Amino acid sequence: MCHAHPIPPADSEAFEGRLIRALNEAGALLLTAIGHRTGLFEAMAGRPPMTSQAVAERTGLQERYVREWLGGMLVAGFLDADPDTGRYWLPQAHAELLTGSGPVNFAVYAQFISLLANVEDDVVRCFREGGGVPYSRYPRFQEVMASDSAQTVLPALFDAILPLAKGLPERLEYGIHVLDCACGRGRALMAMAERYPASRFVGYDLSQEAIDWARRETDRAGLTNLTFEVRDLSDFDVTAEPDAFDLVTTFDGIHDQARPRNLLKGIHRTLAPGGVYLVQDIHASSHHHLDRNHPLGVMLYAVSVSHCMTVSLAQGGEGLGTMWGRERALAYLEEAGFGAIEVYQLEHDIQNDYFVCRT
Fold first, then answer.
1. Nearest residue to 41 via CA among 68, 69, 64
2. pTM of the complete model
3. Helix 208-221, helix 141-152: angle, nearest 10
4. Average pLDDT of the residues in 96-101
5. Which of 196, 232, 268, 284 is deepest in the core (most CB within 10 A)?
6. Span 77-96, mean pLDDT?
7. Domains in the chain, ordered, with CATH?
């Protein structure tokens, strides 16, 4: 007869404490997302202590909501306050991590919590019935991902990422043909097109919203060497133009594809002789137990369940998921035909691996 093994009391108490901390931290992240989107952190950064009324007037927001938000952020330890004067302030060390004044704005990432919570009912239905949540259910996802990319890809693009492929910056200066698959809003392409006017750039993405935004910004910037196209890359293995591009990039764009193997085979097909495929994707293991010490592991699995995996399954796809891992990534790249693959991590980016692949 099988007997249950209850959790020892000490372990149960410790776990209860962890759950309470988790609930509080989740609340802090929701308030952080609100503070980011309403400009409250930016309004308080570098400013002397202010009353809730002064903060509200500075931001043009409703004082009652601002007062309650200030209370939550104070209790969370994000703000300080003087109870005698009723004034609040954002410590400089905190402002550097919650606004654009420092190297990383963590308030950007807090938005993922509230964004993904919007599809909880859809995801629960998928747990019971199968299928997935379509991309159309995430109206702000491209906006938030563009903010993410602005902190991980754009600051390091020219000094750290492109130089991973030896000789690539020089080739871009001379003039080559570049494709970015799953380009989103195309901010990396815009930066490259401006930096390397002799090269030609193309971006493909499934999202009409993202491509429309990218085209507007490209026109506004007067970039004549850059074009965008709405394109489903599920059959790229047969529809890709052979030998068409000297450089192909994907920035965090493989793991949520419906058919990632087809995309990778298409990228191999469309690379010209001597071409380079440069990949940024999530740093993880393909084995769950090896992700237990990942600094963002729990968060990334939550993103996978509520977006990356389910968006792929909604298209009848593989459902690879955010945490597909380096081992599986290498196997897929080799299966696609890439024979020389180098893997790098960059100091500023704990979230991603960078692969330099050649045919």
1. 69
2. 0.90
3. 50
4. 94
5. 284
6. 97
7. 9-105 (1.10.10.10), 118-358 (3.40.50.150)
